[in-house]
Amino acid sequence: xxxxxxxxxTGASSGIGQAIADIYSKNGxxxxxxxxxxxxxxxxxxxxxxxxxxxPVALEIDVEKEGDPQLLLxxxxxxxxxxxxxxxxxxxxxxxxxxxxxxxxxxDEELLKVLxxxxxxxxxxxxxxxxxxxxxSSGVIICISSxxxxxxxxxxxxxxxxxxxxxxxxxxxxxEYGQFNIRAYALALGNIKTPKTFDHLTKEQKLKLxxxxxxxxxxxxxxxxxxALILASEHASFVTGQTIVVDGGTVMR
Length: 253
What we know:
The protein is of the alpha/beta class. Helices cover 48% and strands 16% of the residues. It has one domain (6-192, 221-246): Rossmann fold, CATH 3.40.50.720. Strands 3-2-1-4-5-6-7 form a 7-stranded parallel sheet, sandwiched between helices.
């Protein structure tokens, strides 16, 4: 599905990012694994190269740093000559204290820390990639959002605000750059079973959240990756600017 494509994945060293990098490579793409954990990323790249006979590369990138996304695109173009797919997965690590803090108690500093990764990090990467995609009149951008950005929630206010910004950014990119055959999407995720979100919950919390969705289970990173694969491929060539909800049916619209 992606043979001959070059795909950047941020946050590629674990969880959803790793699953997306894995399925892109399995379907023929040369993947740029961008993450702060360079040794883990190199190990993943080595495994993908051996398994899929693709040409992946790992780059040490921190989307919080304004210059790193520009460096990411510079190195990608230098190695491959193009970028076809940008998938923004890197996000601020969920912290219980901040997740459980009431909206009126969140400080400017706490909000800005989340925005700097989840929203501005994606913004920086999109801004760096779009000129290259525009020059070739081709490109796909996928960003990770969450269901609270659509339906609201009583916890995690900074995350909801950042992820809501993603929805607006994706619509803007799709509208402004559709004339250059650049497509953009947001994946609004529900309860996805990653170590960062699932392992720190109590048994009671896991059970309660399991019952939220009509499908009565948590989703897997691989299921998120499967959705990203379809959007990144030509199977979604006449779809753009959309928010795709991946949550087992909890939020329907």
